[in-house]
Amino acid sequence: MSAPRRVTSPAASSEPVLARAMRPVNYVVERFIPSALIFAIVLTLVVGVMALVLTDSGPVTVVEGWGKGLSGLLEFMTQMALVLLLGHALASTRPVRALLARLAAIPRSPLAAYVFVFVVAAVASLITWGFGLVVGGLLAREVAAEFARRGTPVSFPMLVASGFSGFVVWHMGYSGSGPLTAATPGSFIEKQVGHIIPVSETTFSWWNMTATVATVVLVALALWLIAPRAVSPTHRVTAEAFAQSEQRVAAPVVEAPADRLDASRIPTLLVGLALVAYLVIHFAKGGTVTLNIVNWMFLGLIFLLSRNAFEVMALVKNAASNVGDILLQFPLYAGIMGIMTATGLIKVLSDSIVAVASPQTLGFLSFLSAGLVNFFVPSGGGQVAIQAPILLDAAARLGVDPAVIIMAVSYGDQWTNMIQPFWALPLLAIAGLRIRDILGYTTVVLLVSGVVFGATMLIVGAGA
């Protein structure tokens, strides 16, 4: 898909005061933050050196623990890759795209459009993070195209920033990798804690749902306040540019009996209905929401909403380009876990946290540390894999509910995503923008959401 005409970074005349104030931070992030793969490699080296310095382990133990650990998250890696793959494919189905086109016609003014795109993207991210990322980018494009057809100036970078800002609540919703991993039987969290942690204690706890609503409301208000009132010509994209960049799945060419089967609606419909039947049986027998169940729900929807197998494969092929980073980095995260476990580094780090934390502050400190670690491990699943064992050990020793720790790591991960370029890349590719085009806006979202997340952890900690 060719992107619409690129726009330049926000001009000073149309940039809000808060956005201009964050320019130094944005400059550092864009110029000096390396790729996520380099982060994973550097973090592996750092953890290896820490194990040598802080424990009695030698180089052989470190390397052996790393090598054995590389395969430790294969099932988890597949689950997380499917979340992104299926979310992207679902958002690109014809019915969903048609729905987004109808939604794009709802806002009547630019300010309303910015807030509207954010709210829709936030809801989509609460459903599943891969879905939310793609919906945010596609809806921003649709709204910009709609306003271009009307002849009404609208800031395309601001729309895209609003779409990406919806991602700030993804870990509080239905596909949060931390809560779902904790609720999945046989996960590494269950093995450490000794029992599963149901989503009723994490995702659907009263305090998390309250924080979710507060975050959406306050971020929407912040976006309305910082949105440019005068739209620079460099922020606008023409309707013709969007039309030229539309991604469409071509109709299958039917030349043989096998082609007719590929073009038939019946096979995909049967698989979709079979998945629905399985899910009904699963929940009727008291089954819970896990990573696998989330993936099968969206796989079923893809089969039901697609016209044939040809279209399903085209959607998956388009989505697959976004999955490679996960597949490459997760073995490195697993290797880091292997080093920490084999050398006893996990206990050393846990001891340091226990020394400065109390039952009332552990959740808050865990949130802050997770926000920092997210720069180095920009994957919710990878971050849970690395941080959760350390923090859960500290929680057990301080008598803190492990559900609080799971959500603290989740909050920290989604928080600094607003200035970590990794997860913005799929959305920016859809929009045809660069990270610097939106950072002035998303940094403000970081500040506002951080207040909500930190306050939530302090309030929950006070009740410990």
How would you describe this protein?
The chain is 71% helix and 0% strand. The protein is mainly α and 464 residues long. The chain has one domain. The longest helix is centred in the last third of the chain and has 24 residues. About 2% of the residues have low confidence.
Summarize this structure briefly.
With 464 residues, the protein is an all-alpha fold.
Write the layout of secondary structure elements.
Blueprint: H1 17-21, H2 23-32, H3 36-54, H4 59-69, H5 74-91, H6 94-104, H7 110-127, H8 129-150, H9 156-165, H10 177-183, H11 188-193, H12 206-226, H13 239-244, H14 257-262, H15 266-284, H16 291-305, H17 309-320, H18 324-343, H19 345-356, H20 362-376, H21 380-398, H22 402-416, H23 424-431, H24 439-462
Helix pairs in contact: 3-18, 4-18, 5-8, 5-16, 5-17, 5-18, 6-8, 7-8, 7-9, 7-12, 8-9, 8-23, 9-24, 10-22, 12-24, 15-16, 18-21, 19-21, 20-21, 20-22, 20-24, 21-22, 22-24
**Alpha carbon gyration radius:** 23 Å
- Return residue spans where pLDDT drops below 50 for at least 5 consecutive residues: 5-13
Give the tally of structural domains: 1
- The helix tally amounts to 24
The tally of strands reads 0
Structural class determined from secondary elements: mainly alpha
